[in-house]
Amino acid sequence: MALKKKPVNGMKDILPSEMAVRMYVTELIRKTYAEFGFSSIETPAVEHIGNLLSKQGGENEKLIFKILKRGEKLDLSKATTEENVTDSGLRYDLTLPLSRYYANHMNELPAPFKALQIGSVWRADRPQRGRFRQFTQCDIDILGDPSYLAEIELILATTTVLGKLDFHNFTIRINDRKILKAMASKAGFEPADYGKVFIILDKMDKIGLEGVREELLESYPEEKVTTYLAQFDENVDPAVLMEGSPLPEIISVVDKVKTADFRVMFDPTLVRGMSYYTGPIFEIAMDEFGGSVGGGGRYDEMIGKFTGHDTPAVGFSIGFERIIMLLLERGFEVPDAKEKVAFLIEKKMPSERLADVFAEAQKERDAGKAVWISIMKKNKKFQKEQLAQEGYTDIREFFAE
Amino acid sequence: MALKKKPVNGMKDILPSEMAVRMYVTELIRKTYAEFGFSSIETPAVEHIGNLLSKQGGENEKLIFKILKRGEKLDLSKATTEENVTDSGLRYDLTLPLSRYYANHMNELPAPFKALQIGSVWRADRPQRGRFRQFTQCDIDILGDPSYLAEIELILATTTVLGKLDFHNFTIRINDRKILKAMASKAGFEPADYGKVFIILDKMDKIGLEGVREELLESYPEEKVTTYLAQFDENVDPAVLMEGSPLPEIISVVDKVKTADFRVMFDPTLVRGMSYYTGPIFEIAMDEFGGSVGGGGRYDEMIGKFTGHDTPAVGFSIGFERIIMLLLERGFEVPDAKEKVAFLIEKKMPSERLADVFAEAQKERDAGKAVWISIMKKNKKFQKEQLAQEGYTDIREFFAE
Question: Per residue in B198-243, pLDDT tens?
Fold first, then answer.
């Protein structure tokens, strides 16, 4: 039986033209983040199942690709639950592995530690256009810094990358989990309610204030709901809501120092899904893309799950796949590609002469050109057209005699 | 219960110092191979289990990390075999996914297609020093070229990379599966014996000619064994063995054109493990490393397993992890690192003044320097020492007033 040609359902082969853009963006990101003092690290794709299922991953925990136990550890005859047959899985994000990494290597790393991770993550999401089950994430995190300098650096670094990629007129929405909680508390909600209330508030973008009100009223008394939502009225002074939070300082410094063309805006309705956030949270919004192109926040309590001691941590994840998609849609071309030369060699060229041709190619390569070598085909016209499409405009022919 | 700090058994966290070397080598490889006309591509880490178990992977098929089926597809109550509970797994090499990729996208790719893949593979090998269950492979392959120009290009490209990394005095051992088979056939072995005979021959390095003879005699008559091994005598003219093979031309051209410091040597005892090879095979041997630092060969029949039509294919895999190990042992330092400046900022600096400091950092970053920003710690001396260790020799202090 023939083998399967298509990739596994929901996963993707990357063709050379897209790959060139991905590599260019990756390089630009690494170079820019290095200027901000971030060090590249790598964690394994495979993680302990217990870590993955530790409630740090929210909804993503339902989407884990689990890996079968091996050898004696696997006894299918006695297996009744997935827990019996699996002890590891593919990571669904880079934040959990980073926290494990930092807990494991803290003593070998500078404090604070500024980490850059670019790597694949896997989620068994329902496959849909433009969303794949393996995709690249690109995270910067500052670990061990309780000050809001960390938030400022993350926002400046991320927006500098976006600016270099020629993105304009975007918005950094910013909020603080502490503000979210204070507003809920002020309306009389109990801490146990917060999760549900915030999930509903998060829909403000889609269903509007009235929609949020209706959904809240399904579970909570009118008085609480009204008090709560009154705080989101545009007449409320944002300075009052932000009192006690570092947001005004973060916003003010970012606004003054930023080099890219964007605005940073306090948005009391910003929730961000993950329950592990403990302080400021932020998200990139772009008009040309109806949704978030990245986000992050402070998660001071995750590393403590590994070490027993809370450690300040804040991260910003740029939406790598969305950025690539937007660039491809824009017809982005990688700048400064090498000069390309093709050598077509007639069949049965004696090895003496062949060596001369390869030596000539080597000279061109030493001069920084890309040299394509292949046998001259019978249909030379088609071969040349195909090479021209690949950017080989300088095509040289070498004959056996 | 605390979460697990160590990586999954046999896998590895990569610290910033090693990561810097890995990124430098990756960049150098990509740049060099681009000069040889190779295009980067990417295949998913997850592959169909049927493809992985199709006998293209030799011993590696026993080492697959299998992924649990999901949702309705998984019925543990009826599961008796691994086949019942898994339909995909992590790739154990890059050659099988490349063959699938080429079969799938042939019409969108130039002919011949020159592919570069750098990516992780996974093998559930017994963990041992320096060998991990997730590691990076780095393959170049030329697909659709039946001529030995492809072999020449692969050897020149690979050795150019090694030369640029300052490896000297290494050897490319080269043989041809057709020569291996002809020699076995001449001694009277049947095609059905070849596999076993070659596995024994492959031990020549370790157990010597006498050891090989003894092992062969355990299964085969003395006459055959004696005739067979007589062909490996040093008095036999290699030209006779290589008759009809392209090896003499490949060796002659590579020898004349090579830029790195190595020799290319016909070795009739070279076997290479994988049964899918059909023509020339090669391997890099380095005295400083007792074993292969890469290898490859022609596998003209693998793509046909996907398409029904054989397609010429030849690849060369550089031993990425071994090269990194050798560089680290050598104390290799990444050249041309950026100039590094650290800004230490006193706590509670007003946001006005903070903006000035960040603006100054931005200027340095625009000038191509890496700027580290963090809060000034109480133990400033220790903080400065730690930064100096990280290469931040220019440390500037900024006070709140």
Answer: 999 999 988 999 999 999 999 999 999 999 999 999 899 999 999 9
CB contact under 8 A, A82 and B74: yes
Residue where a domain terminates, one of B270, B295, B329: B329
Two tokens at B278?
């059909």
| B279/B367 same-domain check | no
Tell whether A245 and A361 lie within a shared domain.
Answer: no
Taking the C-alpha atoms of residue B382 and residue B344, their distance in angstroms, rounded to an integer, is 13
- Taking alpha carbons only, the member of A231, A195, A194, A225 closest to residue A211 is A225
Rounded Cα distance, A282 and A296, in Å: 5
Q: Dump pLDDT digits (tens) for A101-155.
A: 999 999 999 989 999 999 999 999 987 777 899 999 999 999 999 999 999 999 9
How close, in Å, is residue B130 to chain A by CA atoms? Answer: 15
- Tell me the pTM: 0.95
Residues A265 and A393 in one domain: no
**Measured between beta carbons, which residues in chain B are less than 8 angstroms from residue A368?**
35
Handedness of CA B36, A28, A38, A278 (dihedral sign): negative
In tens, the pLDDT along A306-338 reads: 999 999 999 999 999 999 999 999 999 998 678
Q: Which domain holds residue B49?
A: 16-187+231-329
Q: Measured between CA atoms, how close is B194 to chain A, in angstroms? A: 25
Helix (H, G, I), strand (E, B) or coil at A90: strand
Stated as kind and residue range, the H or E segment containing B387 is helix B380-389
Residue A303 sits in a domain whose CATH number is: 3.30.930.10
